[in-house]
Amino acid sequence: MNAVGSPDQDLQVTLARLRQAWMDKRPDHAQRRDDLQRLRAAFKARIGQMSDAIAADFGHRSRHESVIADGMTVTGEIDHLLAHLRGWMKPERVGVGWRFWPARAQVRAVPVGVVGVISPWNYPVNLALVPLATAIAAGNHVLLKPSEHTPQTSAFLQSLLAEVFPPERVSVVQGDAGVAAAFSALPLDHLVFTGSTTVGRKVMAAAAQHLTPLTLELGGKSPAVVATDYPLEAAAARLATGKWFNAGQTCIAPDYVLVDAGRVDALVQALREQVGARYGNFDDASDYSRIINDAQFARLKGYVSDARARGLQVVELAQIDAERQRRERLFPPTVILQPGDDATVMQEEIFGPILPVRGYRTLDDAIATINGRDRPLALYPFSHDAATVEKILGRTVSGGVTVNDTLLHFAINGLPFGGIGASGMGAYHGRAGFDAMSKRLPVLWQTKRAGSDLLRPPYSKVAKFIDFISR
Question: How confident is the model at residue 40 (pLDDT cuts 50, 70, 90)?
């Protein structure tokens, strides 16, 4: 479906079709398993097409990065869902306590209906298909709105899903921000949105009209803290992976680094060496992804211009001709030293290959810096001292944590992925996503004869019984 002319009406018709089909026949275990298996097989066969589509949308994106981030994550998540689906669907027995014996109780995971998914452009397949597959595993039908900023990939998704699913089970709608706004206001049974905090607030306001349950995966400024005991070479290597994978266009990329003040220059040098080892002199930049569009490229250039205007030291870790940068949207790995909170680069999520580095005097100062901001989507403590790590974890709150590395908690299927506060609400991946897109339905079975039959007036006749059970 391509939403044109009257997106509200078209979306309502599509949603009604999906919901009616779901009400007519809710997917059982066999249907869910078959859907997931067919999706995996069709997707696996099209990995090359996927990489080509993403590269076309970005201008260039490393094929290997697409396979890792948008291919492997999707197949891995589907495998995890298939491995655990029967167990998750099985009702869980719950004890009723001696006061209600011999009644019995259980909790059932029942599907909610139609789940909406609004996916972003930075990982346009991963962040569309992982929540979609999770919704299918939970027994729902799905309405997907992929990003308008990646039209080739959106067309790939539409073709793939049309091959796997009938339109009354999964439908894809395409369109601009106006379509996304109308999508957010639909009376969906659950809505998963991945994007910026600013847009997330609008999505939440629109969904509130119908009290639609939300999973909001937003962004923010995810910090890394390098403790005094941690080797800089190892920190630089793992920070480089987290920051320059997909040219920094990652919601959980390290957004700024806090390192003990005496080692700031040494960390910058170690980062420079990492860039050289990974990308050389950028004559061949095939392993380095491009910025998605001109508007995002200009935004990042604006951060650098603002920093220079404030007299901050800006270090480009690779020398790339300015015209080539503009023509290819090839933004060099860049470090900005000691930016204050007033610098634009410290006020907004960077979402690009710029890394602010700030020195701290004490670990308490570093923790205070983190706590002085909105709660981040991710946190990266680097220390081999367990007490140091526990101090950081015990005095901060974030969406998720990887200790002594970056990004990897996202890839662990058994860990819930989600933010807190300005970085989001709710979580998905694995069981967390299955439960989020299900209704945890409590069910109590009463027996033919039960003590609760005595709990009715006149209470004078059963006063001793009430006194006994209320001890």
Answer: very high
| Domain span including residue 17 | 7-218+422-443
Q: What is the pLDDT of residues 5-34, one digit of tens each?
A: 466 888 999 999 999 999 999 999 999 999
Of 65, 77, 251, 348, catalytic = 251
Burial 212-229 (b: 16+ CB within 10 A, else e): bbbbbbbbbbbbbbbbee
Residue 462 — very low, low, confident or very high, per pLDDT cuts 50/70/90? confident
Q: What is the pLDDT of residues 48-78, one digit of tens each?
A: 999 999 999 999 999 999 999 999 999 999 9
With respect to residue 85, please indicate whether it lies within any of the assigned structural domains: yes
Closest CA to 181 of 189, 171, 191: 191
**Is the alpha carbon torsion for 313, 315, 320, 324 positive or negative?**
negative
**Rounded to an integer, what distance in angstroms lies between the CA atom of residue 403 and that of residue 381?**
5
d(CA 142, CA 32): 13
Of 65, 92, 148, 217, the catalytic one is 217
Q: How many CB atoms lie within 10 A of CB 361?
A: 10
* Pair 420, 375: CB distance under 8 Å: yes
Residue 348 known to be catalytic: no
Residue 177 located in a structural domain: yes
Q: In which region does residue 329 sit, left (phi positive, over 0), alpha (psi from -120 to 50) or beta (all else)? A: left
| Whether 233 is catalytic | no
What pTM, to 2 d.p., does this model score?
0.93
| Distances 393 to 103, 396, 401, 403, 414 between C-alpha atoms, Å | 43, 6, 9, 10, 20
Is residue 119 domain-shared with residue 140, that is, in the same domain?
yes
d(CA 407, CA 429): 14
What's the pLDDT at 3? 41
Residue 55 and residue 147 share a domain? yes
Strands 214-217 and 223-226 turn out to be unpaired
How many domains, in total, are found in the chain?
A: 2
